[in-house]
Design a protein that fits this description.
By secondary structure, the chain is mainly α. The protein has one domain. Helices cover 68% and strands 0% of the residues. Helix 2 runs parallel beside helix 3.
Length: 95
């Protein structure tokens, strides 16, 4: 289990935030307004990336290979699927 100040616990909380909350958090974390076309998933992934980059350090230019990009893509796809599943569970719980 992660302590509250570790990045993994903060990342898990992103899926419960609204688009508006994520836009505010993006501006706070990234330092600029997010593009208006960004939906919840992209905002959450961007914030997660910035937090992980800050915590662990960014990718080296030479390290951004096809394999690294593929892992990032798979992680993003898993996150989106999990966040959609959690949203469906919350909707059903309200009924």
């Amino acid at each position: 289990m992660h302590a509250r100040n570790e990045p993994d616990s903060n990342l898990a909380d992103l899926r419960y935030l609204s688009r508006s909350q994520l836009r505010d958090l993006w501006q706070k974390e990234v330092g600029e307004k997010p593009p208006g076309s960004f939906g919840r998933e992209v905002l959450a992934l961007g914030i997660a990336y910035v937090r992980q980059e800050r915590w662990y350090g960014g990718l080296r230019k030479a390290g951004c290979t096809h394999r690294v990009r593929w892992r990032l893509f798979r992680s993003a796809r898993t996150y989106v699927a999990q966040s959609r599943g959690a949203a469906g569970e919350r909707r059903q719980a309200r009924r």
